Amino acid sequence: MVAAEVLRLVRRRGLMAWMVVLTVGVVCCYYGLFAVQHAIDARHHQPAGGTRSMYHLVDNFGLVVSLLAILIGATVATADVSSGVFRDLVATGRSRLVLFAVRVPGALIVLLPAVVTAGVLAGVGARVFAGGLPAPSVGLIAHYTGWLVAGAVVDLALATGFAALTGSRSITIGVLLGYEAVVTPLLHNMTVLGSVRQWASGAAVARLEPFSGAPYPVAMSVGTAVAVLVAWTVLSLALGAWRTATRDA
């Protein structure tokens, strides 16, 4: 059944094309553009690579990964209902919880290779185009790639659970993109909320990002950040499973 979910996503050629463009394509364009600028005018443009360049790329790339995770999670969670086959699947006697449970592994099989490839390419590009700048170590590249993967898994779980709860792909994409792009930055700056901000998934993901020299948006320990992300993941999937189990066929 997991293979069926993978196949259903892969057959969406438009979604797959945009996934490649927004992962591998973005990284290649980033280094390509700055490499050309450096080649034309090295006096005014630094080398395209280096540790600092990779940080800027991956830091902004995190939002792109969130977008992809939300798109894929919302798609896989609502495919059965929107296509009208959910009733037929239930009529065959298959467990509703199993129908929901196979969605996340199937989506991860499609999404994570692209995310990992982009993370590795970002590190390789930073080393190849470093010039005389400090280049990232293999460990740092692995840390950044792992950070992207962690954010993708959490956002995918949020999207899958929320989409199963609402039954709407468009509502899920709109709400979660608004949360990621608008609400999360606002929460980071609302110091009046104090430690309550630690429960925001975006703040927890930001805490796990490799240190860039700037203070983290919300102060918390690594253990707290991991606990918050696990709690959001479990809660989202539990709500999605409950809605799938109780939804009218």
Structural class: mainly alpha
Global outline: globular
What is the total tally of β strands?
0
Radius of gyration: 20 Å
Question: What's the number of helices?
Answer: 10
Major sheet: none
Beta content? under 5%
Rounded mean pLDDT score:
88
Cα distance spanning the termini:
19 Å
Topology as H/E string?
A: HHHHHHHHHH
Helix content, binned percent: over 70%
User: Regions with pLDDT < 50 over 5+ consecutive residues?
Assistant: none
Topology:
Blueprint: H1 2-10, H2 13-40, H3 51-83, H4 86-91, H5 96-101, H6 103-128, H7 138-166, H8 169-189, H9 201-208, H10 222-246
Helix pairs in contact: 1-6, 2-3, 2-6, 3-6, 3-7, 3-8, 6-7, 7-8, 7-10, 9-10
Can you walk through the features of this model?
It contains ten helices and no strands. It is mostly helical and 249 residues long. The longest helix has 33 residues, at 51-83. Helix 3 (51-83) runs antiparallel to helix 6, helix 7 packs parallel to helix 10 and helix 9 crosses helix 10 (222-246).
